[in-house]
Amino acid sequence: MTTITTKVLAFSLLTSLGVMTSCSDFGNENLNPNAATTPVTSALLTEAITGVPPTTATGALLDGVAGRLTSLAPEPRLFAQYWSQTQYPENSLYSTTFSDWSRYYAVTLQDLQTIINYNTDAATKGYVAQFGSNNNQLAIARILKAYMFWVTTDRWGDIPYFNALKQDTQVTYDAQQSIYADLFKELKAASAQFDGGTTVSGDIIYSGSATKWKKFANSMRMLMALRLSKVDPTTGKTEFAAAYTDAAGYISTNADNGLVQFTEANQFRNPDNALFDGRDDYGVSDVLVNKLKDLSDPRLPVYAAPTTAGTYSGLPYGLNRNLLIQYTGANEFSRPGTKIIAKTQPGYIITASQMLLAKSEAAVRGWITDDATTAYNAAIRASWEQYGVYDAAKFTAYTTSTKVAPTTADFLAKIGDQRWISLYPNGNEAWIEWRRTGYPDLKPTQYAVNESKQIPRRYGYPNTEPTLNTAAYTAAVAKLTNGDKTSSRVWWDK
Known about the structure:
The protein is built from 20 helices and four strands. The protein is mainly alpha-helical.
């Protein structure tokens, strides 16, 4: 395992946006002559993906992408109704009013920006080239940086973007529409930057494969384009088609899935394993279990563990504490399946099933001319194969059943249901897609405690922003229909 010998880590003074500090007043008095003065960029890349030291369990990449919060409840999974809470249901009742983004900006994004800085600075680019050609490092760092900004803006809406990592003391929030436009350009430019030089080390997603990173970037462009389906379908169609037809391709087979491969070592173990290490805070929701039962879906034994009676029983979603105590005291319920919470279970970021469903939706919308049903069925098969449950006869019966086979009238709804099933346990993406499409037809808990009594549509800005970055925060909040609340909607959420 690669370790970090030194790292330039930024700390925020205002909005966790990376203000560098130094001890220049003391000359060379505090400098260690044996310490490296240029960071090991391969170690920074690994840290940006997974998180080091082991106490963090997972970096902000998976923290944001897969909703895998290890120090907090995984709210997106609760919002998407994948899981229910067993005894402390506050987050299932939507008590969350804001979320902190400091790990995104001050750790993951700053790590990636440091990689970019040292691979472009004439004084350091020669040294760090030992960890991969400068262009290859830049391409990967730019793609991951774009991904993290995408996750961040989809969670909060308008965010600091263009000047976020330039060490300014006051940083304005940029419009999500402008951020999307720039991310489309950035992904294209980053993909074109790969060269035939030394393979990048420290990449535990694709082992430095330029071919696969280009597919990842195109896949991200396609998913971003679909985000615009209601707010700007013309741009969405153009961007989707451009990425879909790009010669580099997109993630269409499980062999190209974007995933983090965890190992037995604690600092690289599946963060879901850490969530259930000596704790029993979550069960698979009755919403998910009942849906899989209704469809006779073979993914059920993978997604959920059986009770001691050998049955699958979802934990009722959204009960208040008194009702939860009564229910769990009298009933067994299913926890996540052993495969899902295994130490070495990969952290899936973008999958073939996800992209084939995106292709099917684009075909239904008339954005591309491919057959929507073929792509839809291929997506289901890819998900079954991803989890090792594919059987030809069962697949035929499943995809031809009236509950799964789409019609003209319900095609988007069927895509939405299958997207929700196949994304499990990626709660963040499932929550975002529910916000965009309204599928599946999730109902808020009757015991909701938030102001709208509805499933949250966004996160509130960090609670330090009103006092530490007042002008920028005030201007951003003024653009939100309901103010800085979870009921306000981001730009594309119409």
